[in-house]
Task: inverse folding
């Protein structure tokens, strides 16, 4: 008799589960209220993905071993584009005796060094301040750093915005090491 009662109770449970479960879905309830917004995170540090530093480019003897009032030499620089020239900045540095790195433009005694740009070219120039013959041999090589505009600096004054970013970061663009450290670039 106990066996019959157990079988009867088991059958009632199976029937109850079969009737209680249905393949049809009922209507969804009303949408609940929206949750609260989370806290804003801390802004990250601007990256340097598009900042480019050239290799050191040797200044040719045709520039350093000629006595002249004015002398120029051209370096091919495919990274210098019209877009970079229009909206970014290009910093140029000259190296003296593998030790001292100076910004260009730079004046030394009677020599004034400058650079000029064309798409695909960087021109290093030297000019005598007194209009006398000079050997422009101060720099053994040079390097340029291109800082293109980004989404926060696009527009008419992009280069000015980049320079303001340097100033706000306490970076002196004439200090080669400070610029390289700021962007995490190798010396």
Result:
């Amino acid at each position: 008799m106990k066996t019959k009662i157990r079988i009867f109770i088991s059958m009632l449970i199976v029937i109850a589960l079969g009737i209680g479960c249905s393949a049809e879905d009922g209507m969804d309830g009303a949408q609940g209220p929206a949750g609260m917004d989370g806290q804003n995170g801390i802004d990250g540090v601007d990256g340097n993905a598009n900042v480019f530093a050239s290799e050191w480019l040797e200044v040719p003897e045709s520039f350093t071993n000629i006595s002249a009032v004015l002398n120029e030499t051209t370096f091919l620089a495919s990274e210098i584009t019209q877009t970079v020239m229009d909206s970014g900045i290009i910093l140029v540095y000259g190296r003296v005796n593998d030790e001292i790195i100076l910004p260009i433009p730079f004046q030394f005694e009677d020599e004034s060094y400058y650079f000029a740009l064309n798409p695909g070219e960087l021109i290093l120039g030297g000019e005598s301040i007194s209009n006398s013959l000079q050997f422009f041999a101060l720099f053994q090589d040079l390097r340029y750093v291109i800082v293109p505009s980004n989404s926060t600096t696009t527009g008419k004054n992009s280069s000015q915005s980049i320079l303001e970013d340097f100033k706000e970061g306490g970076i002196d663009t004439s200090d080669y090491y400070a610029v390289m450290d700021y962007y995490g670039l190798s010396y």
